[in-house]
Amino acid sequence: MRTKFSFLLIFFFIVPLALAELKPGFYSTSCSKAESIVFNVVQRRFSTDKTIPGGLLRMFFHDCFAGSAGCDAAILIDSTDANPSEKDASPNLTVRGYEIIDEAKQELEKVCPSTVSCADIIALATRDAVVLAGGPNFTVSTGRLDGLRSNPEVVDLPGPTVPVSEVLQRFANKGFTPKEAVALLGAHTVGFSRCSFFQERLSNFRATGVADNDMDQSFAEDLSRTCGSSSSEDPTTFLDHGTPNAFDNQYYNQTMFKRGVLKIDQALATDTSTAGFVSHFASDQADFQVTFSNGMVKLGGLGVLDNSAGEVRQNCRAFNRPSTQPPNKGRGQKPKDNKGRKQLSFPFNMFQNGN
Ligand SMILES: *[C@@H]1O[C@H](CO)[C@@H](O)[C@H](O)[C@H]1NC(C)=O
Ligand SMILES: *[C@@H]1O[C@H](CO)[C@@H](O)[C@H](O)[C@H]1NC(C)=O
Ligand SMILES: *[C@@H]1O[C@H](CO)[C@@H](O)[C@H](O)[C@H]1NC(C)=O
After folding, report:
1. Is Oxidoreductase set as a keyword in this record (predicted)?
2. Which of 19, 58, 273, 345 is deepest in the core (most CB within 10 A)?
3. Separation of alpha carbons 85 and 216, rounded Å
């Protein structure tokens, strides 16, 4: 009896609070054009730069899949001498698309000032870019707040050679199933990577005298030509050499032909805990898209619930000054002190689709 009662208590207290913060169409009355404004900005950019989806996906993962905070737009804050930000923590991570977020923000501020958070703009823009690249559409719940901290100090950057078991563990820690983890890595279908992240695979791999045996040899030769031998330059190449700019399941297909670029891409296809998902997604595009969409929705909810210190930034690159801090319109959150530091972690190095 008592157990049942406390269960119900928890249910009623936790669930409504948790769900109250994000909802589809959060801006439908406060800024009814919010989603179409973001879409139009992304579409304009996409028409001249087909690599934008990879850059935005990277930004979204970078922002949301972080240690103690989550989707709070901390990634957008520009560093100052006095306050180094997350951008500083990752000079090599090369997230792209900051200007898209700025442009959307400027247009939104004209129409509905201090209303639409930068964290929501990232989430919406990423979804729109996926759709434009031919991927699935999914509903992005909104109502996030922008964080009041951006701290580069606690950085944990596992590289692209991280074992599959560790990848799955990191995703599991955030509530993702192995199948969802494999689907989210499918974002590499529009990703690209600097050569330095896989160059060791191309020749004398781990002192074997030859290229990585898990890579198709002619593919290794192609990549060697792209990457060259100069260590001063660090060229980039696509992660899906089948259909690099299309959001489809060819990334999985390629790895089944030993054409995975990063060690982790290839390992997903061979590790017994993930190989089944890879071959499934390679032959079932529809299920890949559904699983990916569900994973993105989950990702977009990370850190939003228990990190209520926030604001709606007027400029995504800077915190509002206290005197100009707007009310958190309709969000029902009382700002409280956020002692948690945002921890940079996987999959920063995993999603090498920056430039
Ligand atoms: C970042 O880039 C610098 C110079 O290009 C390189 O020395 C360093 O190893 C890179 N770090 C990572 C984590 O790739
Ligand atoms: C994607 O779905 C949302 C509703 O969830 C809709 O508002 C939006 O227009 C759709 N985007 C495209 C490009 O069809
Ligand atoms: C992968 O792509 C190749 C070439 O387009 C195609 O022949 C093959 O059927 C695909 N395999 C799977 C599992 O989708």
Report:
1. yes
2. 58
3. 40
Q: What is the pTM of this model?
A: 0.83
Instruction: Judge whether residue 282 has pLDDT over 90.
Output: yes
Residue closest via CA to ligand 2's atom 14 equals 137
Question: What is 68-84 written as a DSSP string?
Answer: S--SS-GGGPPP-SSS-
Beta-bridged to residue 142, according to DSSP, are: 23
| Cβ neighbours of residue 235 closer than 8 Å, sequence gap 6 or more | 194, 195, 226, 227, 228
- Ligand positioned closest to the Cα atom of 34: 2
Diameter of the chain measured on Cα atoms: 71
Task: State the distance from the centre of ligand 2 to the C-alpha of 298, rounded, in angstroms.
Answer: 18
CA distance 326 to 168: 40
What residue has token string 């991570």? 93
What is the number of the ligand closest to the CA of 280? 3
One-letter amino acid at 295 equals G
Q: What is residue 83's three-state secondary structure?
A: coil
Q: Where are the beta strands (DSSP E) in the chain?
A: 23-24, 141-142, 192-194, 236-238
For 155-188, write each residue's pLDDT tens digit: 455 678 889 999 999 899 889 999 999 999 999 9
